[in-house]
Amino acid sequence: MSTGTPVITTKSGGIPEIIEHGKTGFIIDPSNIREDLTKHILNLLSNPLKLQRMGKKCVLRIRNNFTW
Predict the structure, then answer these.
(1) Which end of the chain offers a freer environment for a tag, N or C, measured as fewer CB atoms within 10 Å?
(2) Coil, strand, or helix at residue 29?
């Protein structure tokens, strides 16, 4: 996220507290990984503007909410 890359992950541990579904990435159902992962990857790759907007939101979220 700090490099402007939206994250696609499952909801485990503290991940849902970091990723804003649909804004900085996607939180997918672990029982449906193959379909959901494919869907979100293709969605982002086919929509460069969405990918760019989400990437900017990722960087801002990390800078504003998290430190090393």
Answers:
(1) C
(2) coil
